[in-house]
Model the fold of this input.
Amino acid sequence: MIYTVTFNPAIDYVVYVSELKVGKTNRSQHEDVFLGGKGINVSTMLNNLGVENKALGFVAGETGELVEQGLKERGMDTDFIRLPEGDTRINVKVRGKLETEVNGSGPHIPDVYIQQLMEKLEQVKDEDVIVLSGSVPRSVSKDVYANIMEQMKGRPVKIVVDAAGDLMKNVLPHRPFLIKPNRAELEGLAGKVLGRTREIMRSAKDLQAQGARNVLVSLGGDGALLLDETGKFHRIGVPKGELKTSVGSGDSMVAGFLAGYQKTGDYVTALRTGAACGSASAFSTALATREEVESLYHELELMEVK
Done:
């Protein structure tokens, strides 16, 4: 079983405009509404692939009810903790010549409810997977992912972390099974701009030296780079297609990687499946379907690492 944890779910309100004019009234060409948050995106993609999973996390207010009910209507298995105050956030994303986002901050999560999450995670069995991804509200410590890993210490549970800054940095000593920074997040961890592939490889090696077992770096239009736990690098490109949105493509890559690894135990297959899921979602206005992923899988080829 794969469990995803989303501390800060969201309703994503996506507005499409020909051009955003700051300080003036803009009229949209059309709008979309998605139920999101990085962990929820991972669960949605896993669900699309037919992989058993359960979405955990926190919801609040009427917007939280909409998220929870909407996911259940889509056949997803959820077990959210309902907070007594606040509202699940709404993120506004403007799609034009450039992508502009205004993300809500999310509700306050008292410590007693974080402890409830810790108790729910006790249901995790040996060899299960926990995916910790996305931001946390300002009220939550940047050690929270590390604290979850500490609770799981000594158990054969695979933990995946997809987060930025201290949330990511703090889990490294606990040896997560997989971390998935994008280029910008990798540069943030490295404290410098990374240019050539060799620089990205060195930064991935540094993260592995700090504790990460596998490091998967998503590189947008340049594909992805995987440093597996044996110390071997794998590089994969992207198939041909029209980019429609980058939102959720990284989360889809995480889901695909886990689906591929769960099925075969092979890192190359996991990387190829992850890349197919990430690309298929980038080429769609929503998270990709299983059919869309399968249509791209065989188009992807491993690249020489240099």
Remarks:
- The domain at 177-306 is CATH 3.40.1190.20 (UDP-N-acetylmuramoyl-L-alanine:D-glutamate ligase).
